[in-house]
Design brief:
Elements lengths: L2 H7 L15 H11 L11 E6 L2 H19 L13 H20 L5 E8 L11 H4 L3 H13 L2 E3 L9 H8 L5 E3 L3 E5 L13 H4 L6
Antiparallel strand pairs: 1-2, 2-4, 2-5, 3-5
Helix pairs in contact: 2-6, 3-4, 3-7
Length: 211
């Protein structure tokens, strides 16, 4: 797989996650070792990684995620409700909405759940600009997802579980100064024929020097 193929075919995989095939923890560790090479602000490396394989814990997290997804699907901002008046995008949005609903029902069945987290100095999120803070974990999480793709694994970046961040933190025994950034289901994929997604033309969104 060339770098271009890797970067353009690493999809958010939901309906094509194989919930019945185990994932070796050693493979997840390989992906995380790669993720640790990502940059972080001031080289603090304040990330922490919680890998959940216990069936009961996965089921409990999945139940919280299902409740969050149900609320999301009822909201006006749900993916399937967006761009309804744009025939070029409506069908794609409907498929995304269906896949979100599917993962909402099955998150707890994913053989591995990975939660990238941040350790907060001072124990609290700062007021104002937090881009640098979260920007210190996002590249590492994406590197994990890319590494997983090269090993035949599918992932999806999800954050709806954060509606129940406190409950999940208690379930996993997270310290008070550790905050969750995402919930990434990880599983083998059903098939490997992923293709680049349809995106807006670059010239529609590119601004050079000024808007």
């Amino acid at each position: 797989m060339t770098p271009e193929e890797l970067l353009t075919t690493t999809r958010s995989v939901r309906k094509r996650l194989d919930f019945d095939r185990p994932v070796e923890l050693s493979v997840v560790r390989e992906c995380l070792e790669i993720a640790l090479q990502a940059p972080s602000g001031s080289n603090v490396q304040g990330w922490q990684w919680v890998v959940v394989t216990d069936p009961d814990q996965r089921a409990a997290i999945g139940d919280y995620y299902r409740q969050a997804v149900d609320a999301y699907l009822d909201s006006p901002g749900a993916a399937g409700k967006l761009f309804a008046d744009n025939p070029n995008r409506a069908s794609v949005q409907n498929r995304v909405g269906d896949s979100v609903a599917y993962l909402g029902q099955h998150m707890g069945r994913a053989p591995v759940l990975v939660l990238p987290c941040l350790t907060l100095r001072g124990g609290e999120l700062p007021e104002g600009n937090q881009a640098g803070l979260w920007g210190s974990v996002l590249p590492a999480a994406w590197s994990y997802m890319l590494a997983a793709r090269t090993r035949g694994l599918g992932t999806a970046w999800t954050t709806l579980h954060l509606s129940y961040e406190t409950e999940i933190a208690a379930l996993l025994g997270l310290p008070d100064n550790v905050r969750q950034a995402a919930l990434i289901p990880t599983a083998h994929t059903i098939g490997t024929d992923f293709k680049p997604a349809r995106r807006q033309p670059l010239d529609d969104i590119l601004h050079v020097n000024r808007w």
